[in-house]
Design a protein that fits this description.
By secondary structure, the protein is α/β, with parallel strands linked by helices. The chain is built from four helices and four strands. Strand 3, helix 3 and strand 4 form a beta-alpha-beta unit.
Length: 95
């Protein structure tokens, strides 16, 4: 059985992660590559939905719009990043 490759749309702040996600086996398009630089949040979300992409964003508004419009989205908040960093720091530097 052939696996389906997940296709991602990286919001502007995550464009630098494209190569990492590709290395992990995803098909990746950045907002900039899609011509969505400095575009309204709703247009980014609608683009993701129209092209069946999972939107990866750090901004709450597009994540909420995606939920309202039924578009797949992963919201990575600053809180999530801080918690992950805290966990790694505590693991690496246990006293």
């Amino acid at each position: 059985m052939e696996s389906i490759v997940m296709k991602l749309l990286l919001d502007e702040m995550y464009a630098g992660l494209k190569e990492y996600f590709e290395t992990l086996g995803y098909e990746v398009l950045t907002a900039q590559e899609a011509g969505l630089k400095a575009t309204k949040d709703r247009e980014v979300v609608e683009y993701a939905g129209k092209h069946r992409l999972v939107l990866i964003t750090q901004d709450q508004k597009p994540a909420e719009l995606a939920e309202l419009l039924g578009v797949k989205c992963v919201f990575i908040s600053n809180l999530m990043i801080a918690k992950l960093a805290d966990q790694k720091i505590r693991e690496a530097f246990k006293e």
